[in-house]
Amino acid sequence: MWKNFVKDYLSFTKKDRIAVIVLVTLIFFVVLLPYIWPAKKTVQPAKEEIEKIKILAAQLNKPDTANQKESASIPYNYPVKKNYPKEQADLFYFDPNTLNAAGWERLGIREKTAATIQNYLARGGKFKKPADIGKIYGLFKDDYARLLPYVQIKNETGFEHTSYEAKKEYPLADKRVYPAAPFSAPAIIDINSADTAAFIALPGIGSKLAARIVNFRDKLGGFYAVQQVAETYGLPDSTFNKIRNLLKCNHTPVQQININTADANTLKQHPYIRWNLANAIVQYRAQHGNFKSVADLQLVAIITPEILEKISPYLLVQ
Question: Residues 209, 229: one domain?
Fold first, then answer.
């Protein structure tokens, strides 16, 4: 039995013995290969080349002192001026708190930067001293130096001109000679006859707000009080308070709606009359007959004295 086991499992044929011998030979050859064929020696760089590499590395890591000095001399984070088209600048004395976008562009400021200034003023921002214009995002350093001598900010004591520190910082800017135009404050405008250009001339009012005011006036049928301008969509309270003294309302007749003939769809087109209010007026008229006067609207349940006072100038009875 043992002989049969050895014969069956431990005996090798001639081909098996040859394969084992070849395999063992290959294993020994692979093991001894590094000793028979050594790797090439790495060539060490010369000392002179190492020193050159160190010098180049030191130069690359060295800070740019020239740029540091230039950036240290700039009082604010001015943008790098790219190749924008040259503006035809016209310099004159101005108050940055009241100058409109068209005025900034006349001074040679880009339209985008002028819009940024108007947005800043519309949100209640204010320039307290001439040097504050340097904080405008997008204003280039040379534009700041060019405009600074012409800044006049109106305060309680009059106009504040460029401070001594600003003149000392940019002495060459004061030596430029330009034909200076006298500063003119915005004129008082009539809110019922003014166009968008007149509203844009007001401080803090851009083209979009001006268009909204005129559009709101047209939908109402005219203003009967200056306070109504404050109801314009998107007009901040701070901006309205700034321009309130520059507005007036002449006694121009507003467009009126006949409450005895108008249907609900006609009434609800008015900004002060919503659908539920328009429907209530028409339903009450259908049940009780025509109104004898606008004051009879107080008989409608949902119309309060405040609502009646607000809408009555735009209504009539015929």
Answer: yes
Q: Take residue 143 and report the two structure tokens written for it.
A: 């534009």
200 within a domain of the structure (yes/no): yes
In a domain, 72, yes or no: no
Long-range contacts of 251-256 (CB under 8 A, 24+ apart): 252/190, 252/192, 252/193, 252/222, 253/222, 254/220, 254/221, 254/222, 254/223, 254/224, 254/313, 254/314, 255/221, 255/222, 255/314, 256/221, 256/313, 256/314, 256/315, 256/316
β-bridge partners, 158: 155
User: pLDDT digit string (tens) for 32-88?
Assistant: 877 777 655 555 656 667 776 777 776 666 555 444 444 444 444 445 444 444 445
pTM: 0.45
Q: Is residue 287 part of a domain?
A: yes
For residue 139, pLDDT over 70 is answered with: yes
Report which of 138, 139, 130 is spatially closest to residue 166, judged by C-alpha positions: 130
Q: What angle do CA 67, 72, 74 make, to 5 degrees?
A: 105
Q: Of the segments 40-44, 119-123, 182-186, which one has the largest average pLDDT value?
A: 119-123
Count of domains forming the chain: 3
Residues near 199 by Cβ (< 8 Å), separated by ≥ 6?
189, 205, 209, 210, 213, 214
Report the distance separating Cα 270 and Cα 288, nearest Å: 24
Domain residues for the domain of 129 are 101-175
**Domain final residue, candidates 198, 228, 248:** 248
Side chain identity, residue 16 = D
Same domain as 239, residue 277 = no
179: which residues sit within 8 A by CB, 6+ positions away?
91, 92
Q: Which amino acid is at 30?
A: V
> Do 164 and 212 fall into the same domain?
no
